[in-house]
Design goal:
This protein is an alpha/beta fold. It has helices at residues 2-10, 31-35, 49-53, 74-84, 88-102, 121-127, 131-143, 166-173, 182-185, 201-210; strands at 62-69, 113-116, 152-154, 177-179, 189-197, 217-226. It is 38% helix and 16% strand. Strands 1-6-5-2 form a four-stranded parallel beta sheet, sandwiched between helices. Helix 10 links the parallel strand 5 and strand 6.
Length: 228
């Protein structure tokens, strides 16, 4: 329609990976960027690099990431746009795509509720949304299981984890999360989700908080895995 063409002149539809213009049939990513996404396929191997992060540190069922994160990559462009440029649609899109894979892949397919890593209220108000929640909403849509952002809370505002060592990352987020509405999670298999995992400190702190709920089992899924 002419109206759509006019809007594209004012607000051009560009690929969030490479920045080139999108064709009408393309969504978020051009066909080339989508085809060449660095998918990890970690969900096929219970003994994968993301799972190993938690070995000897906390008890989970499984852990995986959709994509590999490298500095200067198209994945970094997407994550940056999702977090800092208001592109909530990127999080939902990636969640929907990963959910199509996880919904038929045990043990993630046994998940009963999705819980995103929360932002502190001040950061949420400044940004206007939680990027991990957008990813969770996409997963929820394609996996057909509910998402809850009203159970896990961040009680302290913490510094960015970027450029911190493993020890400092853990120290930065220790005891900053707490659980409300335990009845919603009691006895459930939880899929805990975040945008990027590096050392796993933030997710470990969330798992520690969620583990006080009777009868829970926890799996982890993130958009991307960044090698240390």
């Amino acid at each position: 329609m002419w109206a759509d063409d006019f809007l594209c002149l004012i607000f051009p539809r560009i690929c969030s990976g490479c920045g080139n213009s999108l064709w009408k049939h393309e969504k978020i990513l051009c066909d080339s960027c989508f085809y060449h996404l660095p998918r990890t396929r970690f969900h096929l191997d219970i003994d994968n690099p993301v799972s190993r992060i938690f070995w000897g540190r906390t008890r989970i069922l499984s852990a995986t990431s959709f994509l590999l994160f490298n500095k200067g990559s198209k994945v970094q462009n997407m994550i940056h746009a999702l977090k800092y440029k208001g592109r909530k649609d990127i999080g939902i899109f990636l969640g929907e795509e990963f959910g199509k894979i996880l919904r038929s892949s045990p043990p993630w397919s046994q998940s009963e509720i999705i819980v995103p890593v929360p932002l502190h209220r001040k950061k949420y108000l400044k940004r206007g949304y939680n990027q991990s929640e957008q990813f969770a909403l996409g997963l929820s849509a394609s996996m057909e299981i509910p998402c809850s952002n009203e159970c896990l809370y961040r009680k302290n505002e913490t510094e960015t984890q970027t450029h911190k060592s493993r020890f400092l990352r853990w120290n930065n987020v220790q005891d900053v999360f707490f659980v409300q509405n335990q009845a919603v999670l009691k006895g459930k298999t939880i899929l805990l989700v975040d945008d990027v995992i590096t050392t796993g400190a933030t997710l470990e702190s969330c798992i520690s908080a969620l583990s006080v709920v009777p009868g829970v089992n926890i799996s982890v899924a993130t958009i991307a895995y960044a090698r240390i």
